[in-house]
Design brief:
Elements (H helix, E strand, L loop, with lengths): L2 H4 L13 H11 L3 E5 L5 E6 L17 H6 L2 H12 L3 H4 L13 H11 L3 E6 L2 E7 H9 L12 H13 L11 E4 L2 E4 L2 E2 L2 H12 L6 E4 L2 E2 L12
Parallel strand pairs: 6-8, 7-9
Antiparallel strand pairs: 1-2, 3-4, 5-6
């Protein structure tokens, strides 16, 4: 799936001249947490979110520093903070240089942007015009709309084992020797040691998701719980 498959199309936008009071009303009445900011010609110029409204003079939540910290804080920074906490227009609060994606951007790319840029929503832009927006909620709805897991595939023990070993061979965290995986009547037995609880659980999940697996018996011992150091997977 890509952005066009999951995005919200009827995007609410504001302009740099929209008042802060009007912005608050829009966010609350539409039950949204952020909106793109567009210029008069429709070009996106920024984004403003509820997070930009946390530090406000009206609420008494503007940032305050002691005299010591004030001494080491540049006047430009303090002036910017004053504008954001006392500003009356969206232009005073918005974040410029907004991260955007094209309609054909894959969901993996969007998830990476949300993670690396620490953003909750990504506007979808075509020709500098906002045509949609993808939020974390959109990704959750896409996941929830996926079809239910199909019925377990019919696979013999050798096929299950080969498929699981193949999956683990592509995972950098896994270093399983082949003799640590035994499949009997569709039941996968996992043996040996793991470095962490997370590795043990990851191996179990990989086995559970292998087509044909009926159940998993996880006999792996986490290395940290062993009184004597041993080679992983032995």
């Amino acid at each position: 799936m890509n952005a066009a498959d999951v995005m919200t199309r009827n995007v609410v936008t504001v302009t740099p001249e929209t008042t802060v009071a009007a912005l608050v009303h829009i966010l609350l009445s539409r039950n949204i947490s952020g909106v793109p900011v567009v210029a008069a010609d429709g070009t996106i110029v920024g984004i403003v979110t509820e997070g930009d409204l946390v530090r406000r003079a009206e609420l008494g939540t503007e940032r305050k520093r002691g005299s010591w910290l004030t001494f080491f804080t540049g006047t430009a920074t303090m002036a910017e903070e004053y504008v954001r906490s006392h500003g009356t227009r969206v232009a005073d609060l918005m974040s410029p240089g907004v991260v955007t994606v094209a309609p054909d951007a894959p969901l993996a790319e969007i998830a990476d942007l949300m993670d690396t840029r620490n953003v909750r929503r990504v506007p979808v832009v075509a020709g500098n015009r906002v045509v949609g927006i993808v939020s974390r909620a959109n990704l959750l709805r896409a996941w929830a709309s996926l079809p239910a897991d199909p019925a377990p595939a019919n696979a013999d023990d050798a096929t299950i084992r080969t498929a699981l070993l193949g999956e683990l061979s592509h995972q950098s965290w896994s270093n399983r020797p082949e003799n640590s995986i035994v499949v009997t009547d569709g039941i996968v037995h996992l043996w040996g040691l793991a470095g962490t609880d997370e590795e043990r659980r990851a191996l179990e999940l990989a086995a559970e998701r292998t087509p044909g697996t009926k159940s998993v018996r996880n006999h792996i011992v986490v290395l940290a719980s062993e009184p004597y150091p041993m080679m992983l997977g032995m």
